[in-house]
Amino acid sequence: MRFTKDHEWVELDGDIATVGITAYAADQLGDVVFVETPDLGKSLKSGDAMAVVESVKAASDVYAPLSGEVVEANGALGDAPETVNDQPEGLGWFAKIKISDRAEFDALMDRPAYEAFLGSL
Amino acid sequence: MRYLPLTPADRANMLSVIGAKSIDDLFIDVPGVAQIRDPFDLPRHAGEMEVERELAALAAMNRPAGSGPFFCGAGAYKHHIPATVDHVIQRSEFLTSYTPYQPEIAQGTLQVLFEFQTQVAALTGLDVANASMYDGSTACAEAVMMAQRVTRRNKAVLSGGLHPHYAAVTQTIASAESMEITRLAAAIDAEAAVIASIDTDTACVVVQTPNAFGTVTDVSKIAEAAHAAGALLIVVTTEAVSFGLLKSPGEMGADIAVAEGQSIGVGLSYGGPYIGLFACKEKYVRQMPGRLCGETLDAEGRRGFVLTLSTREQHIRRDKATSNICTNSGLCALAFTIHLSLLGERGLKSLAALNHSRARELRDALAAVPGVEILTPRFFNEFAVRLPANAIETVEALVGRGIIAGVPYSRLAPEAGMDDVLLVAATETTTEADIAALVAALKGRTGQ
């Protein structure tokens, strides 16, 4: 699993990247009440706003950590947005992206680097 | 305490940060014709009695709507407002309270907004209504931009029966969101003409019933055509009392209904403040503009009210907010809610029936005037007539006889080529004597 400075995580399986927000981000947001997932087929450049997550106190954009095309969105979050708080780095994933540039993945932080980054905040 | 404004050095410093040379640079987007360059030429100060005398003389040049026979409608209607409405809205808890962010001190205001939303949803036949917009025209523009967000398409088609001011406001506001607005030519009875303009880029079609010419239309077929193409149907109503008699927008398949709510509880007041009604299907609620009040339970399990789904709004969502409206027409919403509560469901129905029957009397009387042709095929309390002469000139002439005969359509849309078309409205305030006076004056004009 790799991480961004915007607190997204990515897990790569072949050329399919599963993307969500980190436990740290979910904790900072508080109770998530709504998630707007991206449309299927949407093509994204890394850094594009991809999804929106709303908690009781804020609404934030979730950025695409990698370039590619959206091949699946987590529809289960529609009825159970709290999954983002319960299992942020598992069932609370947002979307799957078919990536177009593997080098972007390699450039992301690994867990120790992300934890060091959190420690610096 | 003396208020110390910024020093010239402070100003120069701030201007240099944003890269402007002078304060005037901040106004370059205002067209030159709209800028005031010369200092105001104000009269010298005067004593209270002098000012009172001068203002009274100015006010006497106006002709209040209640001073004689009055047939203007076209988006603002003269209705009777019970004294209770004014009495209640003037309570200081309502009149002076600021925007109700804090539920712990604003339960009264919030409950009124909740009741207001419930009434608007019931009238429009839709699932959810917001706590109001500025007026019907801005509500219309907001609905068009909401359709853009829902469908992610950029084209809107406005019917030729949409009030020309609503069309102009929508064009102005929505064009800033890169929307392409197609405005069909003015037409008395052709709301369904929008169907031919629907394509796969169409976010929404906007129709009005009763429309700007008073024509009542069942828009169900238009809803089907819009939905088949993945577009939304927005239904506009400028006369809220018509909800008491006509099929609601929701029943006819509207996705969003917007209306001017002035007719219920809000005076004509020389054009405002008015109140925009805005309702939609529940599945679109997160794309709705404006305030929304919700019912909840407090920590002790008691019923209470709070603003809800605020993450759509600018104070939280910033530039991604669904709208840049950060308020609502709170006091007008209160007046609307009090008046409608006094009327009740049966009262609104009989008020609407009375309006329609007065308008039919007016229609029958005008149809008997030689040279006058009734143009509107199905109406509620307003319809268009063709006069044997220019409508603006006729209205001006009748003002001299103490009669305000209606709104010439060319006042709303000079380019439409309908110079002989007059819009006339009758409400519960219209009397037989008013109608007789209008008919006599028109007959006098035509020399019959």
Your description of this structure?
The complex is a heterodimer of chains A (121) and B (448). Chain A has 121 residues and is of the alpha+beta class. Chain A has one domain: RNA polymerase II/Efflux pump adaptor protein, barrel-sandwich hybrid domain (OB fold (Dihydrolipoamide Acetyltransferase, E2P), Beta Barrel). Helices cover 21% and strands 36% of the residues of chain A. Chain A is globular and about 35 Å long. Chain B is an alpha/beta fold. Chain B has 2 domains: 116 residues, Alpha-Beta Complex (Aspartate Aminotransferase, domain 1), CATH 3.90.1150.10; 256 residues, Type I PLP-dependent aspartate aminotransferase-like (Major domain) (Aspartate Aminotransferase, domain 2), CATH 3.40.640.10. In chain B, 35% of the residues lie in helices and 13% in strands. In chain B, the strands form 3 sheets. Chain B has a 7-stranded mixed sheet with strand order 1-7-6-5-4-2-3, with helices on both faces. In chain B, strands 10-11-13-12 form a 4-stranded antiparallel sheet. A two-stranded antiparallel sheet of chain B has the order 8-9. Chain B is globular, with a radius of gyration of 24 Å. At the A-B interface, strand 4 of A face loops of B.
Task: Tell the overall outline of chain B.
Answer: globular
Distance between the termini of chain A: 21 Å
Structural class, from helix and strand content of chain B? alpha/beta
Give the low-pLDDT segments of chain A.
Answer: none
Q: How many DSSP H or I helices of chain B?
A: 13
Tell me the helix content of chain A: 10-25%
H/E element order of chain A: EEEHEEEEEHEHH
Keyphrases for this structure?
heterodimer, A: 121 residues, alpha+beta, OB fold (Dihydrolipoamide Acetyltransferase, E2P), six-stranded antiparallel sheet, three-stranded antiparallel sheet, 4 helices, globular, B: 448 residues, alpha/beta, Aspartate Aminotransferase, domain 1, Aspartate Aminotransferase, domain 2, 2 domains, seven-stranded mixed sheet, four-stranded antiparallel sheet, 13 helices, 13 strands, 13% strand
